Amino acid sequence: MKRISILTLLLCTCLASAAWLQAASKPKITKFNAPGAGTSAGQGTFPLPINSAGAIAGYYIDSSNVFHGFLRSPHGTFTTFEAPDAGTGAGQGTIAESLNTAGEIAGNYADSSSVLHGFLRATDGTFTTFEVPGAADTIAANINPAGAIAGEYIDSSGVYHGFVRATDGTITKFSAKGAGTGAGQGTLTAGVDGINPAGAIPGSYIDSSGVYHGFVRSPKGAITKFNVSGAGTGAGQGTEAAGVNTAGAIPGEYIDSSGAYHGFLRAPNGTITKFNVSGAGTGAGQGTEPENINPSGAITGLYIDANNVNHGFLRVSDGTITKFNVPGAGTASGQGTIPSSNNAADAITGYYIDSSGVNHGFLLTQ
C-alpha cells in the first residue's frame, strides 16, 4: 500500500469506522461449509485468511478426520485441493494458512508419516513444496503480497525456530535471543498475517522457563523483543504477537498470572495499548484474544466469557469495540464464534462451533 498523508489516513479511518458502526446493527453474515466437510464433533470447515478481494482460504476436516485445503472465491465458489504427497490418514492432509492479494496460498501438509512440509500454491493451482534445511517439520504460516513466506520449523530436538523464504526460494533461519532450547521451546512466528509487505515478521519466543515473549523481526533481520506490562511470568504465561499490518502495528494477547487473556496493540513506534472486551471472562483460559489486524488498524478476534463460550469482536482504530455472534453458534463451553481475519473492507471470516461441536465457516460483511 502506498503511503498517504496522515490527515487523509485519519479521515479515511474515521469514515470507515463510522460506516462499520452505523451498519453494525444489520451486518450480513453468510454461513458456509466446504464440500466434503465432516459433520461430527471436531470436524467441519475452518476458514483462516481473507484477502483484499474477499477470497477466503482455509481447510476442512472430513468424516475420516483428514485435512483438505480450500479456496472460496469472492462469489462463493469453492476450489478444494491437496498438496502433493499429503497423507490420507486421520490427522494428515493439507492446511491452507495464508493468502495474499494475488491469490497465492502458503500452507502445510502432513505426509503419510505425519511429517509436516511447507507449500506454495500459485494462482494457477501449481504447487511448490519445500522444507527448511535440517528441519524435522516445516510450518509455513504466512505469505505477503510479493510472495515471501514466513513460518517456523521444528528441529530434531523438538525446538522451534523461525524462517523466511524469499521469492527465489532462498530460506533464512532465525531465532530470537533468549529463546529456550528445550523441546516445545524456541521461536514461533505469528500466523495468517505474520509477514507484512515490507517483510517485517512478528512472533513470540518461549524461554527456558516456558514463558512467552513478543518480538518483531525487521526486513533486514534485526529482532526487537517486547513484553506487555501485566503479563505473567510463569510457564504458559506472557506475551504473544498475533500479526502485523502494512504500517507495522502488531496486535496480540498477553496472559496474566491467573492465566486470563487480555488484548494489546503495539504501535509502530513501540507504544502498547491494552484492552479487554466487555463480557470477557477473567478466569484461566478466558478473556480477550485478538487474531488479525487490517491496514486501517481494525482488529478482529474472539473473547471467551465466564462460561467458556466464544464470541467475536471487531475493534476499530479509535478503540470502539463491536461484539457479534453467528446465528446457530453453540452456547455451551468450547462452542461459539471464532473470527480468524479481517480485510481492508472489514469483511471478517472465521468459523463457528455449533451445539454438536461441528465447525462451520462464516463471512461477515456490511
Characterize the structure shown:
The protein has a domain at 1-32 and 276-366. The chain has 366 residues and is mostly beta strands. 5% of the residues lie in helices and 43% in strands. The strands form 7 sheets. It has a 4-stranded antiparallel beta sheet with strand order 1-28-27-26, with no helix packed on it. Strands 2-3-4-5 form a 4-stranded antiparallel beta sheet, with no helix packed on it. Strands 6-7-8-9 form a 4-stranded antiparallel beta sheet, with no helix packed on it. It is globular. The two termini are 23 Å apart. A hairpin with a 5-residue loop joins strand 26 and strand 27 (348-353). The protein has 1 helix and 28 strands.
Order of helices and strands: HEEEEEEEEEEEEEEEEEEEEEEEEEEEE
- The total count of strands amounts to 28
Strand order of the largest sheet: 1-28-27-26
For the biggest sheet, the summary is:
4 strands, antiparallel
Structural class category? mainly beta
Strand fraction equals 35-45%
Helical percent range? under 10%
Give the overall shape. globular
Distance between the termini: 23 Å
What Rg is obtained from the alpha carbons, in whole angstroms? 19 Å
Overall pLDDT level: 93
Count of helix runs: 1
Poorly predicted regions are 1-24
